[in-house]
Amino acid sequence: MEYGLIGNPLGHSISPAIHACFHNGIDYQLHPVETEEALKQFLEERNFKAVNVTIPWKQKVIPYLDELDPAARAIGAVNCIVNDHGRLTGHNTDVSGFRQMMERNHVSLSGKTAVLGTGGASHAVCQAVVDLGGSVVLVSRHPREGSRFSMLSYPELMASSFDVLINTTPVGMSPDCDAAPVEIGKLSSVHTVADIIANPLRTKLQFEAQLAGKKAYGGLEMLVRQAARAQELFFGTAVDEKTVMSCLWQMKMMQSNVVLIGMPSSGKTVVGRMLAQQLGWDFVEMDAELVKRFGTSIRNVFETKGETWFRDQETKLIEDLRSKKRTVISTGGGVIKRVENMRMLAENGVVIWLDRSPMLLHGTSERPLSPDDDAIRRLYEERLPLYRLYSDRCVENNGQLNETVRAIEEIVRGEN
């Protein structure tokens, strides 16, 4: 192995794809290291040119290194090791990765910041916050004396006031996506949340922060930016901003879905099919999939089993769709009635509200909740706040279909 990533577990890592963006043909491999003995053997053999380091080894690699760069020495954590003719130097690119992410998104860290977790990633984030003029309080399940920063327990955090909250713990990381480290809605003073988890793209913490009206950022951009800095250390050549942003877009496109929400007859199915064809992605129409599973119409299911049973089956289908990537998902009009539905769909999905004027919506006897035009317009007014709440973007579908598809495609490609 020339270049790669060591850590445990590594099953969901996209690091090889990221580094391929910066250096086509790079020999970059995932190398799981499960025990300290295996770590010791790997580093003593020194049979590599450079490696990245992830949990749980960012601090435990240090005794095996010959030298640390200033950032790694200051924070006591290493995420990049370069082998220069047998001499191992430890670096930390997480600091610059997180700092650059905050700067590009114009996030002010001049106030009081709570950082969840005390591991190697936490140390890097704390240093970045300090570099950007912020003050840090660490939050831990087991606060201790002697830390560089003051520490709180989680109950103490919930009784305190902060401007920004940053999660550096693995709570909420795939496959345990239904967990969140805190109930962010109860921290009313927090206006910005950053979660350094990159998989899923939107954690439960981020989702709940957005519902509470807070700005929220995920860890994919930090991952790409720290990898760009590591690449510079690998090869001694700079990676420009255009290349970084191109890589970030490619990584999002690798993992993202498009989720279309909106009223019955708003055009989700036809627009979704056209969009999937344009992107070269898969297409799933949830109502059609449910009819397949039921073996009968949705109207018949409503009449014989009731709406609650139908909604339960809808949620089960969404659970099955969580593993999808590069898929356009056309939802049923009432999917927004359950918050857990929208959280799961939003994990790796750009949620687009396909809004059609109520005067262009049409009811049909096949739809149990909108059998005629008057009923569908009343339903529109009832659901309007939920469509607004859960959507990342709204695209009107009152004109030409190709224009609607183009508008959504521009959003997905980051052009709008």
Write the layout of secondary structure elements.
Elements: E1 3-7, H1 15-22, E2 28-32, H2 36-45, E3 50-53, E4 67-68, H3 70-75, E5 80-84, E6 87-91, H4 94-104, E7 112-116, H5 120-131, E8 135-139, E9 150-152, H6 154-158, E10 164-167, E11 192-195, H7 204-211, E12 215-217, H8 220-235, H9 241-255, E13 257-261, H10 268-279, E14 282-285, H11 286-294, H12 298-305, H13 307-321, E15 327-330, H14 339-346, E16 349-355, H15 373-390, E17 393-396, H16 401-412
Parallel strand pairs: 1-2, 1-3, 4-6, 7-8, 7-10, 8-9, 10-11, 11-12, 13-15, 13-16, 14-15, 16-17
Antiparallel strand pairs: 3-5, 5-6
Mean pLDDT metric: 95
Kindly report the spatial arrangement of strands forming the biggest sheet.
2-1-3-5-6-4
SS element count, helices: 16
Q: Tell me, what's the shape? A: elongated
SS elements, strand count: 17
User: Are there runs of 5+ residues with pLDDT below 50, and where?
Assistant: none
Helix content: 40-55%
Hey, roughly how much beta strand do the residues contain? 15-25%
Largest sheet: 6 strands, mixed
Rg, alpha carbons: 24 Å
Cα distance spanning the termini: 40 Å
Structural class: alpha/beta
